[in-house]
Amino acid sequence: MIEQPSGTVIHEDKERSDLNGELEGFADEFEVKELYDPFSSYNRAMTSFNDGAYEYVLKPVAEGYKYIVHVEVRESVRNFFNNLYFPTRFVNNVLQGKFHNASEETGRFVINTTIGVFGLFDPAKVHFNIGAHDEDFGQTLGFYGVGSGPHIVLPLFGPSNLRDFLSMYPDVLLSPIDYTERSYWTLSDTWFEYLSIKALEEVNYISLDMDRYEKMKRDAVDLYPYFRDVYEQYRKKQIEE
User: Fold this and answer.
1) Which residues, at least 6 apart from 22, have a Cβ–Cβ distance to it below 8 Å?
2) Phi, psi (5° rounding) for residue 104?
3) pLDDT in tens, the chain (241 residues)
């Protein structure tokens, strides 16, 4: 047996001590960055509910709708809804100081409402290469540094967070599709009308991309945290842009 010098043992102990210190520091950092998710039990249950609602209600209805309504008509319905949300996009672009985007949104609205026959077509994009600049009040708050808060899964609407959930109300006040009582023009005066219009919008949207949800589910080992992380990363990217 060849004995190692005692200095070697001391050196190895020092390296092991340094390594343990680094691992403890990494563990401490990991714990600090661990996602705050106080509503996880509720969110999991609501994710399962929404998944069932999609599989057994929305998807079959969207498949029947897709079979009956021609794709060009469904694309026009999507364009019509997108055009209706001009006030929301315009105001939130202005609030974020994105005045060029706000001016392009105005141009899109004028072109698509006139040449595009009340927004049924999108000549602004097709012929003038003017794309939409999607902004909402949740993004505006995030732009000014307001944190997302805890994640919340909404019935039927799906993943959200506290900031985006609270931001739905001011956005609705700018939208002609409304669930609040107000004196100026809206397409919906009652909750039933609001839900009916939103149901049409959602079914039409699903019918144009039937495989999207299924592809996301195939990538998920655990449905709730996967959807949560995808949503939060997506919103973060939107705000940074």
Assistant:
1) none
2) -65, -35
3) 444 444 433 344 444 444 444 434 434 443 434 578 999 999 999 999 999 999 999 999 999 999 999 999 999 999 999 999 999 999 999 999 999 999 999 999 999 999 999 999 999 999 999 999 999 999 999 999 999 999 999 999 999 999 999 999 999 889 888 777 766 778 887 888 888 999 999 999 999 998 889 888 888 889 999 999 999 999 999 999 8
Number of H helices, E strands in the chain: 12, 2
Residue whose token pair is 């600090």 = 32
39 phi/psi in degrees, rounded to 5: -105, 25
Beta strands in 155-240 (DSSP E): 158-161
Strands 158-161 and 151-154: antiparallel
For residue 163, how far is the Cα from the chain centroid?
Answer: 12
